[in-house]
Amino acid sequence: MELPGGPVDDEGRAVNEPLLAALTGAAVGGCAECVQRLLEEVAAEPACVARLVEVARLTAIHTNRGELPGYMTEDDDPSGPAAPEFKRLVRAVTAAEAVTVVCEQMTGAERHAAASTAVEMLVGQLRVANSIGFDDSETLAELCCAVAAMLVEWWFSSAAMARREFTEAWKQHAFGHREAGLPDDGTNALALLLGALLHHQARQDQVVGEDLRPLVFTRVLPALESPERAGVVLAGFVAPPHTDTVSVPIKRYARANPEFLAELCRYLRSALTVHVKDCPHGLRESDHACTLAHRGPALGQDAGPQVAAPTPEEGMRVALPWIGFREDEPAEDAPSGHDAGHVWQINVDRIVLERWDADAAHWNEAISEDSSVSEPNYRHEVGLEPLCCPSCDSHGPFLAEGAWDDPLTLHCRCGVTTMSPLDARPDDLGRRLLKRLILCEADPSYAGRRLLAPLAGFRERAQKARESNWYRGPDDEDVAVAETIDLDRGDLVAALTDALQPRLPKRHEGRALTLLLLQILEALSAPAVHDSPDGRRLAQAVRDLLTDLKEESDRWAPARAPVVDRLRTWQAEGGPQLWQDAWARTLEMAECSFARYRVGDGLIADGCAGVTLAQYLLAREADCGVDQITADDVRSLTLPGDKQKADQDPSPVMLRCAERLKALGHDLNADDDPVARLWQHLATDRPTGTFGDQRAPALTLGLDTLLGERSFYRVRL
Known about the structure:
55% of the residues lie in helices and 6% in strands. By secondary structure, it is mainly α. The chain folds into 5 domains: 17-132; 140-277, no CATH class; 296-366 and 378-442, no CATH class; 452-559, no CATH class; 561-707, no CATH class. Strand 7 (409-412) and strand 8 form a beta hairpin. Helix 3 runs parallel beside helix 6 (108-132) and helix 4 (84-94) packs across helix 6. The longest helix has 25 residues, at 108-132. It is flat and about 120 Å long. 36% of the residues are buried.
């Protein structure tokens, strides 16, 4: 009677299949003498004993609806005839250990006892299957693994950054340890561990049948707090046999790498915490006992946010969306004149919030890593958008309710109440948002007053940036926004509206300045804010900021000019024909390499000017055309003698170049000589861009940028 498994085991050891077939056939036929003789031979071959135990275990799983009877695994279970040696090997198979190696460590008598029990169990299970057949219905283990996979997938779909973080961590294990045979998709590992813990909890809670809805899945959190405890459960979990290609390598790798197991536990703790936080049944319960019945609707495909009614009296509830949203801590304490427990009821037309978009961040990362994209189309990751009811997608109006320090309760006209959790931390989005609404209700001018600090902070950061060596003027997008705002208009609200073209209630993305001005526009649009002293202070602060930004933009306007335009300006100053030929050759190179570049820190423009000067100088000295001068010739001009010494102190290079220009008849202090004027510019010290306050002549810095050994450009003439 041939057994499944093939001629070799997982470790590559040969398995005597004819011997096992003869033993099984003798056992089925009832030849006790033959069985005893063949058992002696099987016991002498560890790989055969291991295969016999594996097949007996697999048959028992199929005849017991995915479970292993206690008498096959537990040493203190007296209900069956299993030998301790057999139980030890069954546990080894379940834990994905190298069973043949375990058999080799046994004595011949121990292997004989294990094989005797295995063949007895196998024949008994086969007779049961022959009389009543196998039950092909879904097992508890399969149900638990399926539910675990849905719990994990829901978490990943609602938290894109969590998926990215886990995927990167998984790749380090899967590709860094290819010999482990881990699957490419790490979601299977999370689902396997969570499925094992859910299965363990279901058996403890005596959940029977196919209905897992009453299972309180949060009871597995203590096990996730202890990776050692979770590892024990995982090792003893009888995973569905069809998942062996995934479960076996994961179990083995988790046993050998405690850090890996701890990572899985950490991610699963985060996943379950998010599920509990988003459960509408527990929004007003501390330590909510969340069941799978609560999460069922949310886990279904194409299901929106789950709406639930814990009791008929409480009405329908839905969790407040919070992933990606940001709300600053209120700038003031609770309004005076009200009791500490005063419950506010506030009507609001809409609530505008700042939200970070994980999809845009993922797009930007993909663009930045794609070397084929020459002009990256980056998206703004942060934007303003009105809070919408998760049930009906309405942007308002809402009725906000709650006391200071309470979680938010937001009533929509669709009949659904949006709530933040009762046991959320003080910095929870719902608590902070309710405080903002309370402060605005008590004093409408707070809507403008709260923006004074962010506005001052933005200006302070801008001023601090101007003191840095790397600063090359305000951001182009900020300048574009400032330039479109007509500060001569008396109505700042109208000026901001025309310039910003707000897209609310649709999402409006932008840089920090754009979003700040949008919030200011939203606040000043209310007459109670616009006409208040705080509103006037805010409007004046905006005017001061934009005026300063425009002045700073004008100061740095040359840095925003295209490099090619800057070079043409120098060329237009005139000079001898050889000088003009050098400029023409440099411009041809610049139009090819730097057509879309701006002057910025000036290094590229100075490098191009240095190339022009070098071509002219070398061509004059050699009495040849500039087309005979190569990039190596230009490079040698700035690196004579000891290269290391020249790198440390560029003054000898500058002195030598000055002497050679004078020898050609140029007065380097003259104002009417284009060559001398360019030399004066290139001899000026510029910041090197390194740490500290180091400076060097523009000539050597520019040429090193274009032609140096570590140059990113390495242009050719």
